[in-house]
Automatic annotation (TrEMBL):
SUPFAM superfamilies associated with the record: BRCT domain, DNA ligase/mRNA capping enzyme, catalytic domain, Nucleic acid-binding proteins, RuvA domain 2-like
Alphabetical list of InterPro entries matching this protein: BRCT_dom (IPR001357), BRCT_dom_sf (IPR036420), DisA/LigA_HHH (IPR041663), DNA_ligase (IPR001679), DNAligase_adenylation (IPR013839), DNAligase_N (IPR013840), NA-bd_OB-fold (IPR012340), NAD_DNA_ligase_OB (IPR004150)
PROSITE patterns in UniProt: BRCT
Keyword NAD: yes
Descriptive protein name: DNA ligase
Entry similarity comment: Belongs to the NAD-dependent DNA ligase family. LigA subfamily.
Its EC number(s): 6.5.1.2
Active-site residue list: K141 (n6-amp-lysine intermediate)
Residues at which NAD(+) binds: D60, Y61, E62, Y63, D64, S109, L110, E139, R162, E200, K324, K348
Cofactor: Mg(2+); Mn(2+)
Organism expressing this protein natively: Chitinophaga flava
GO molecular function, one term: DNA ligase (NAD+) activity
Length: 718
């Protein structure tokens, strides 16, 4: 087979690009002859890349488009058709390293269609030769690489690739390492002396993923799909190396067999469906369980469509279904061309890959500060949608795949999976492509970016970054953080859009009157919200820490940190090494240290403190907060905005003490709803003051708050 050097490859690449562009517009290159000549040159090149190199540069859909174009031109202009045309033969898939073996029966390709209309036409066409009740066996079209197996006297004798259809490559050594191909099978018991079985060798999606990971780890470019990986593996010269990669096989066709003297052929082999069942019984991997026999076009179409929906949930790749005339006698009647059998057709699924040009890369800031590079490509239709933006995920992936601006890129979109770049088509490089430069500053707020220890992703850690602020406010107010009921996502968005809040600190400056004036809000709900915010000022420190949304700092770490630090702004002076210890590893320590090293974040913390937000861990009070020193408290009934534990914590944070029962030592009884016997008992003692929840909250307000606070805080006690 012809080999291509890089210069020839580059020329054929750009010729292909130009052909595809013309084909999409329905135009010839210059005239019919020049178009056909160009197709005769590029198709064998892509066959070489696909079959020999296992590294195609076109998507199958694009290749099939060029192929169909040539077939059509040959039909319309038979005088211009070449004798060795790819339309009339199986593509040459013979390398040189392995020895060639002749096939007993030619191994052909399949005719294919991409739409159900053509599938219906094909069924109608076959019925003109067979008869109207013909049945069809539908089975998955496995996206692997074809093999032929020969068994003699029950033993596996030989395994071969399809090669050029007439002869294939001897891959017996590699075949023996595939678990789903038995070394022997009980054919003799059925009277079968020799048999040739055909099928497909595959790599599961899972094995493929780890296969590519390994390639990247060894500085090798990832392969585009499991098919290329399987084909490449099967043709490896060293079976030990091939055995490392987990290949599987499905067998779906008996092409040839001889019977022992006087034994009749097994009835099962008279139909395609029976053959699959028999192979399964003999211990081969087969599509017996997924097959379906139908007798109408409607049934066939429906099965194809239902299978296409299941495509992504299968453990291996399929690229369509194969529809085969079920009856072996009818198959013989239909016969074959030099390219494909007439009794089978492939219904191919919508393409999921396409080539496009990468024009530029933008950097988007995620809702929690992650910086994601996004490739802007020329719009291209893949799997039924137009794709123009493709995430490049992170800097490492760009480096691993060596993606550059100006590259032609192979883009895939599989089912629900977001589109991604399989690989750049390096053969199409012109030398003008440029490396993708990662920004050092946040593209939204201009803050220096940080890459956490051991991570691949850069982050903007500025809590007031415009790109993140909404999400961060929602997190800050969430149940496990500051627990501000009434500040869920939709309300936060509303306040933000109405300019009532702009960042986390501004929550504590929220104007009750303005909230009440919003649509669907009223005095009462606004006042409730302000009450919740008031309560949030006194939340235990771990809630504030968790609410800041520091990477890797969940509830547990927040607790550990609160205990460790005592007064939150002190963290600004801590190095990662000071933070490490119980429950805080190097990665978390570094992330915390980055967060507090950020001046903007410290400014925000200072502002929060000025607005009365508690910065002290329980038991680490500052002098200024000793407002309840020497005072004793007790709670009765249900409090509206606090749990008992939180209330007790507040008392202790301000130097007070919580008693367990009404006694002479008690100064204050805080009375909630459904107050019980404690209230009755305390009412008898004039020295004990009864407080409502709102009065209590006023008492625990820290002094800083009192200085700046001009707003009246109301908590409605039901
Ligand atoms: N992207 C490229 O550059 C490029 C180049 C060459 C070929 N190709 C692709 O390969 C196709 C041609 O390759 P091909 O000749 O191997 O044809 P094919 O892959 O479209 O179909 C024929 C093959 O399907 C396989 N198959 C899987 N499940 C089967 C089943 N249940 N029953 C029968 N066969 C089953 C067999 O190996 C058979 O040889 C093209 O249509 C194109 O999509 C792509
Ligand atoms: Zn930012």
């Amino acid at each position: 087979m012809k080999q291509y050097n890089s210069k020839q490859a580059a020329a054929l690449q750009s010729l292909s690009e130009s052909l595809l562009a013309h084909y999409k517009k329905g135009r010839l290159l210059k005239d019919t002859k020049s178009t056909m000549d160009a197709l005769y040159r590029v198709i064998p090149y892509h066959d070489w890349r696909y079959y020999i190199k296992s590294d195609p540069v076109l998507s199958d859909y694009e290749y099939d488009g060029l192929f169909a174009w040539l077939r059509q031109l040959e039909k319309e202009h038979p005088a211009l058709a070449k004798s060795g045309s790819p339309v009339k033969k199986v593509a040459e898939g013979l390398g040189s390293a392995l020895s060639a073996v002749k096939h007993k029966v030619p191994m052909l390709s399949l005719e294919n269609t991409y739409n159900t209309q053509n599938l219906g036409d094909w069924i109608t066409k076959t019925r003109q030769v067979t008869h109207h009740e013909s049945a069809y066996c539908l089975e998955p079209k496995f996206d692997g690489t074809g093999i032929s197996l020969i068994y003699e006297n029950d033993r596996l004798l030989r395994g071969a690739t399809r090669g050029d259809g007439a002869a294939g490559e001897d891959i017996t050594g590699n075949i023996r390492n595939i678990a789903s191909i038995p070394a022997s099978a009980p054919f003799a018991a059925l009277g079968i002396a020799t048999i040739e079985i055909r099928g497909e060798v595959l790599m599961s999606k899972k094995s493929f993923a780890s296969f590519n990971q390994e390639r990247i780890a060894h500085q090798l470019p990832p392969m585009a799909n499991p098919r290329n990986a399987a084909a490449g593996t099967l043709r490896m010269i060293h079976p030990e190396a091939a055995a490392q990669r987990k290949l599987e096989a499905v067998l779906y066709h008996v092409s040839y067999y001889t019977m022992k003297k006087g034994r009749p052929a097994p009835a099962a082999l008279k139909t395609q469906a029976g053959t699959l069942d028999l192979l399964a019984k003999l211990g081969f991997g087969t599509p017996a369980a997924q097959k379906k026999v139908v007798t109408s076009i409607r049934e066939a179409v429906r099965y194809c469509q239902s299978f296409e929906k299941k495509r992504d949930s299968l453990p291996y790749e399929i690229d369509g279904l194969v529809i085969k005339v079920n009856d072996a006698t009818e198959q013989r009647l239909l016969g074959m061309t030099s390219h494909h059998p007439r009794w089978a057709v492939a219904y191919k699924f919508k393409p999921r890959q396409a080539n496009s040009k990468l024009r530029k890369v933008i950097f988007s800031v995620g809702r929690m500060g992650a910086i994601t590079p996004v490739a802007k490509i020329d719009p291209v239709a893949i799997g039924g949608v137009t794709v123009s933006s493709v995430s490049l995920f992170n800097e490492k992936l760009i480096k691993d795949k060596d993606i550059r601006v100006g590259d032609t890129v192979l883009v895939e979109r599989a089912g629900d999976v977001i589109p991604y770049i399989v690989k750049p088509v390096t053969e199409m490089r012109k030398g003008t492509e440029t490396n993708i430069r990662f920004p050092s500053k946040c593209p939204v707020c201009g803050h220096a970016l940080e890459k956490p220890f051991g991570e691949q992703i850069w982050y903007c850690v500025n809590i007031n970054c415009q790109a993140q602020v909404l999400e961060r406010i929602v997190h800050f107010a969430s149940k496990d953080a500051m627990d501000i009921t009434g500040m869920g996502e939709s309300h936060v968005r509303e306040f933000y859009e109405q300019k009532l809040i702009k960042d986390i600190p501004s929550i504590f400056e929220l104007n009750e009157r303005k909230v009440a004036a919003l649509e669907r809000w009223g005095k009462r709900s606004a006042s409730n919200l302000i009450g919740m915010i008031e309560r949030a000022r006194h939340q235990p420190l771990q809630r504030l820490i968790f609410g800041l949304g520091i990477h890797y700092v969940g509830l547990t770490t927040a607790k550990v940190l609160a205990k460790k630090v005592g007064y939150l702004p002190d963290l600004a002076r801590k190095k990662p090494a000071d933070l490490r210890g119980e429950g805080i590893g190097p990665k978390v320590a570094e992330s915390i240290s980055h967060f507090f090293a950020d001046k903007e974040n410290i400014r925000s913390l200072k502002k929060l403190e000025r607005l009365g937000v508690n910065m002290h861990a329980a038991g680490h009070r500052a002098k200024a907060d000793d407002t309840l020193k020497g005072k004793t408290f007790l709670f009765t009934g249900t409090l509206a905005g606090l749990t008992r534990g939180e209330a007790a914590e507040m008392v202790e944070q301000h130097g007070g003490q919580v008693l367990s029962s009404v006694s002479h030592a008690l100064n204050y009884l805080v009375v909630g709803e459904h107050a019980g016997s404690k209230l009755t008992k305390a009412s008898e003692n004039k020295a004990i003051r009864l407080l409502q929840e709102k009065d209590f909250l006023k008492m625990v307000k820290p002094p800083a708050r009192r200085l700046s606070g001009s707003r009246k805080i109301k908590i409605r006690l039901p």
